[in-house]
Amino acid sequence: MKAIVFELPRPEDLEEGRLDRILSDLHEALAELPRDRVRRVLSYRGRPGLLLQLANEELAPACARVRSLLQNERIEYVEHLYYGVPRSMFIPAGGISAEPETKLSPVRRRRMVRRCLQAGHAFCRLDLFSDAQSQFQKAHTLDPNCAEAVYGLGLVEAWEGHDETAERLLRRAIALDPQKAAYFLALGRLLYRCSHLEAAEEAARRAIALDPTDPSCFDALGWICLDLGRTEKALAAFREALDLSPSLSSALSGMGAALFAEGRLKESTAFLEQALLEDPDYLMARLQLGWCRFHTGDSEQAEEDFLQVLYGPVHDLREPAAFGLGRLYLQRGSLDLAIENLQRCAGSWGQARWFLGEALFQAGRLPEAEVEMLRALELDPGLQEEVETRLVLCCLHQGRLDEAQALVCKALENQGVQAPLLELLAAIHGSRGEWSQARQVLEEACRLEPDSAPACFQLGWVEENLDEPGRASESYQRALRLDPEFSEAALNLGWLFFDEGRLGEAAVLFESALQQKPQDGELLYALGRVLWSEGRFERAIARFEMALAQQPERADTRAWLGAALCSAGRAEEGRKELRQALREGPDEETALFIQHQLRQRSPRPTHSEAVGVRLRKKAQRLPSAS
């Protein structure tokens, strides 16, 4: 004899009273059948259902009537076919022909509890947590003192994000059976997720004491210690876990994270790569490996790692991955991509807001940058020094000098007298043309930090504006001795040599700086000027063209390209460039130079004495807030 169970929705999934009405209609439709063969039951998933246990010739028409009625009512149902009697399902639920409640023997009760627990854990492994909860609840109903049932309910509540309820249930399970390491481990993981690190550590250590052979307990302790800043203890815990289970991907990833925290990037990378060999889908290890590669300069592989995490299935890791991509694109100078990714993860994360503000600042979107930096400061007061410095630069670049000076004075009060802040104050004085005050401030900055290349550079820039080229040259040279890759110092010192006619020395400085920044339009323009002055017109033309490709809006670069073409005997091309430069609306000095060149009937081998040696404004480097 076959049996079919029509599994129906739960009462709470339907309108109030509708399930009872439908079951009553089904009973009326099957009234001619023996009442002991049509019964209301609970399915193995704990849902209400109707059992038909009939001979084959009676079963088919009865099932057809049930299907027709349920379809007309638009009720979703599931059919379960059994050969024989599905004994575990006959838990009376009231209604149609409910069996009278029978008292369960202790043996049968224990057997049913065990089956419910097994089913609950199986559903958990399949991520069917609603069904798991139903099974654990049945077990708890059958035996209210069953610690494992309470533990299972706690696991389900934790998965659903009900942390307070989950903690209460797990502590209840521990009270019922304080000798189970798994209960303490689950509680420790829950407390770790809730950032209750001290309590989480205590729970993890209790779990280890109860079961020192379980690698998961040591792994959990390692992650907790890592978040507490106890790197050595974290490393020791992860080593214990790996001694017990060398292929445990979480412990391998934890070793990588702890070594990364100590700055041991090569060793960290090796452990993280091993974790991914054990589990290629372990996105936490993939994210950490991306950071290792980011800090070791392997930006292409880091980008690939971050993208895999960003578009992976673990939602909680998407914001950290977007943050990593934002940092990477900001470092590359891809500002639009940096802003797009940092906006994805900004939210209530102060660091993300800060880097978003930095990207907006570099993109020239200063009002937006100010807003983001102020939000970053609200979310993370530890960013005060960085934010105050950057806000000064925002005000300075927008010409709000009084506001910038007030911010610098406030920062000096909060942080004490520091060379970077004095450099900012000097830049404000310079923007007002107060060069003497700027020099006094920078001399104090150099006294505080004699090894500060930016302070020496700024002092040279101020001395140039005070018309003291000799002292400016000394300051620039000191900046280059402190930082040989300081391209702005090389550029300004090269221009001083150029003004003095020391073309060879200027060319050496410009070419050296170009090795650091081969696409820098200012350096390409400067080297083109030297080559033109030396009569090497074709090479000068090449440099001017490269500079113009980097800075197409610079009319003066186009003007000197035209002059170089004329000097190289390509007068028609040269005059075309000169006229185009004039149409672009150059400044007055450049316009005079262009008009002078256009009036010449034949190419000149050198620049005209009537034209200033240098038309380009000197480079000014404001102190970095990074």
Helix and strand topology:
Layout: E1 2-7, H1 18-29, E2 38-42, E3 48-54, H2 56-72, E4 78-83, H3 106-125, H4 129-142, H5 147-159, H6 163-176, H7 181-193, H8 197-210, H9 215-227, H10 231-244, H11 249-261, H12 265-278, H13 283-295, H14 299-310, H15 318-332, H16 335-345, H17 350-362, H18 366-379, H19 384-397, H20 401-415, H21 419-431, H22 435-448, H23 453-465, H24 469-482, H25 487-499, H26 503-516, H27 521-533, H28 537-550, H29 555-567, H30 571-583, H31 588-599
Antiparallel strand pairs: 1-3, 1-4, 2-3
Structure report:
- The protein has 626 residues and is mostly helical.
- Among the domains are: 1-102, Alpha-Beta Plaits (2-Layer Sandwich); 485-626, Serine Threonine Protein Phosphatase 5, Tetratricopeptide repeat, CATH 1.25.40.
- The protein is built from 31 helices and four strands.
- The chain has helices spanning 18-29, 56-72, 106-125, 129-142, 147-159, 163-176, 181-193, 197-210, 215-227, 231-244, 249-261, 265-278, 283-295, 299-310, 318-332, 335-345, 350-362, 366-379, 384-397, 401-415, 419-431, 435-448, 453-465, 469-482, 487-499, 503-516, 521-533, 537-550, 555-567, 571-583, 588-599, and strands spanning 2-7, 38-42, 48-54, 78-83.
- The chain has a four-stranded antiparallel sheet with strand order 2-3-1-4, covered by helices on one side.
- Strand 2 (38-42) and strand 3 form a beta hairpin.
- The protein is elongated.
- Residues 90-101 and 605-626 have low confidence and may be disordered.
